[in-house]
């Protein structure tokens, strides 16, 4: 268990540092396509780097999906989620330190890659749109993960499939919510930014967890497994 906790914390740190970092440090240069690739590639790196140790969930919604699918015990789930949150906060802290090295940077103005919706946030999509997007996309994401890591899957390709799926989700939805599908990824930047980011945070906890849980239930019923 200690090895799994360390691996989950490290992997989630990488996810936040690469994904949110691409938006904060390089967003003006690489655009939404580049940010989407950064999130996806971070998952690929983590999957092949630590997947054999912890499964590289890096996401409470994924871990919850595993529990609901009968592939993870509740005790292990609690340890994974604690590690994911810790790793995300460490990643956000590192990113904040780096971003603060630019003289004109302000976390209140430039943010830290936080998620959001409504007036003043990217495409200014409604609360309803944000909830539907996060729920549906997390359901799709966790369904893919359960499929490519389950019985009958092709060995060696899980990390690539998962990373490309996350890239695709970002290409569709960055302008909607900044894309969470991961409560830990949303929590960490919000803690540093505060204000609206914290006020909006519940959306990026409730919707992804609900989507991940449903994906696990559907898998357990046999509809999305071999």
From TrEMBL:
Gene3D superfamilies linked to this entry: Glycerol uptake facilitator protein (1.20.1080.10)
Classification via SUPFAM superfamilies: Aquaporin-like (SSF81338)
Swiss-Prot/TrEMBL keywords: Cell membrane, Membrane, Transmembrane, Transmembrane helix, Transport
PANTHER family: AQUAPORIN TRANSPORTER, MIP17260P
Homology family: Belongs to the MIP/aquaporin (TC 1.A.8) family.
UniProt lineage: Bacteria, Pseudomonadati, Pseudomonadota, Alphaproteobacteria, Rhodobacterales
Full protein name: Aquaporin
Subcellular location: Cell membrane
Signal peptide: none
Main location: membrane
Organism: Gemmobacter lutimaris
Classification via Pfam families: MIP
Residues passing through the membrane, by range: 7-26, 32-53, 74-99, 125-148, 160-181, 201-223
GO cellular component: plasma membrane
GO molecular function per UniProt: water channel activity
Membrane topology: Multi-pass membrane protein
């Amino acid at each position: 268990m200690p090895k799994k906790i360390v691996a989950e914390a490290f992997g989630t740190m990488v996810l936040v540092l690469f994904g949110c970092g691409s938006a904060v440090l390089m967003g003006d240069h690489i655009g939404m396509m580049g940010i989407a690739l950064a999130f996806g590639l971070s998952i690929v790196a983590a999957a092949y780097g630590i997947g054999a140790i912890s499964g590289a969930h890096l996401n409470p919604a994924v871990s919850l999906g595993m529990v609901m699918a009968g592939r993870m015990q509740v005790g292990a789930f609690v340890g994974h989620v604690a590690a994911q949150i810790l790793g995300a906060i460490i990643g956000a802290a590192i990113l904040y330190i780096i971003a603060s090295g630019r003289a004109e940077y302000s976390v209140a103005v430039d943010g830290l890659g936080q998620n959001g919706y409504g007036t003043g946030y990217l495409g200014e999509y409604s609360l309803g749109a944000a909830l539907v997007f996060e729920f549906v996309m997390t359901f799709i994401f966790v369904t893919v993960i359960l499929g490519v890591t389950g019985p009958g899957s092709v060995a060696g390709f899980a990390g690539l499939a998962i990373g490309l799926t996350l890239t695709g989700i970002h290409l569709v939805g960055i302008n909607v919510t900044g894309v969470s599908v991961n409560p830990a990824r949303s929590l960490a930047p919000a803690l540093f930014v505060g204000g609206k980011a914290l006020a909006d945070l519940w959306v990026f906890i409730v919707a992804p967890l609900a989507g991940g849980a449903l994906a696990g239930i559907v898998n357990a019923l046999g509809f999305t497994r071999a």
